[in-house]
Write a structure and sequence with these properties.
The chain is about 45% helix and about 15% strand. The chain is built from eight helices and seven strands. The protein is globular and about 50 Å long. Helix 2 links the parallel strand 2 and strand 3. It is of the alpha/beta class. It has a seven-stranded parallel β-sheet with strand order 3-2-1-4-5-6-7, with helices on both faces. Helix 3 runs parallel beside helix 4 and helix 4 packs parallel to helix 5. The longest helix has 27 residues.
Length: about 260
């Protein structure tokens, strides 16, 4: 039986790299993103060229209507949902000092990154519970959080709070769903070359030059995709609620 993976925010960047890798791993792919499919058709053509079966659902993870539409599309097209990768997320539109952060920015970033992830996971988990076990589990959920779940960044505090919330969602859902045969994991990217980091490229280039990162290079979306691929395989069937830093060793405390 072929398994199906939902990847949110997967029209480009980290999400697309994850979707493409899981397609190569043999999953049928359901992409959900707010962007118009036509704007990123070149990416999706690569999935087709890889031989991947895929569908695109345009929608917002913050909308209950769109979440239900996503689950309906996945189950009607492919018969079930076996993997959910919660990748969709946003950074603040403007980086402000913590004392200047607006409530509007906080609500937007936390609403999408944390609240949207919370309730999409809830909805997908309920669908997974209806399904039969395959190789000792019903499903796998992977949350893409960030090194910012632990690392202070006072110019984008709302993002740090949102990603710390995603990390707690990993713990909570891992605890709740283990008895249901659903495993929950987390990947914490560091500095990855995407549109989100493009505006601060000079800052990070200097950090690489100054030796702040033990692996002194930009991370690539494929670096994240490789770890997600491993979590979604059957190689981690006796672990849940854990995370992997994919940050070039940035998390290492050094003297």
């Amino acid at each position: 039986m072929k398994r199906t993976a939902i990847v949110t925010g997967a029209s480009r960047g980290i999400g697309f790299a994850i979707a493409r890798q899981l397609g190569k791993d043999g999953f049928q792919i359901v992409i959900m993103d707010m962007n118009c499919q036509e704007d990123y058709q070149e990416n999706f053509d690569l999935l087709t060229a890889d031989g991947t079966s895929w569908i695109y659902v345009q929608g917002d993870i913050c909308s209950i209507k769109d979440r239900n539409m996503l689950i309906e599309a996945a189950t009607e097209t492919f018969g079930g949902i076996h993997v959910l990768v919660n990748n969709a997320g946003v950074a603040p539109r403007v980086r402000n000092d913590l004392l200047e952060m607006t409530e509007e920015s906080f609500d937007r970033v936390v609403g999408i990154n944390t609240k949207g992830t919370m309730f999409l996971t809830q909805a997908v988990a309920k669908q997974m519970i209806k399904q039969e076990f395959i190789d000792r589990k019903r499903g796998t959920i992977v949350n893409i959080s960030s090194c910012s779940a632990e690392v202070s960044s006072i110019g984008r505090g709302e993002y740090c709070v949102a990603k710390a919330g995603v990390s707690m969602l990993t713990t909570l859902y891992a605890d709740r769903l283990a008895s249901e045969g659903i495993l929950v994991h987390e990947v914490r990217p560091g500095v990855i070359a995407t549109d989100m980091t493009d505006t601060v490229r000079d800052k990070y280039n200097k950090m690489f030059e100054d030796g702040i990162f033990p692996i002194a290079r930009w991370g690539m979306p494929e670096d994240i995709a490789g770890v997600v691929s491993a979590f979604c395989s059957d190689k981690f069937n006796y672990t849940t609620g854990n995370y992997v830093d994919v940050d070039g060793g940035f998390h290492i405390k050094r003297l």
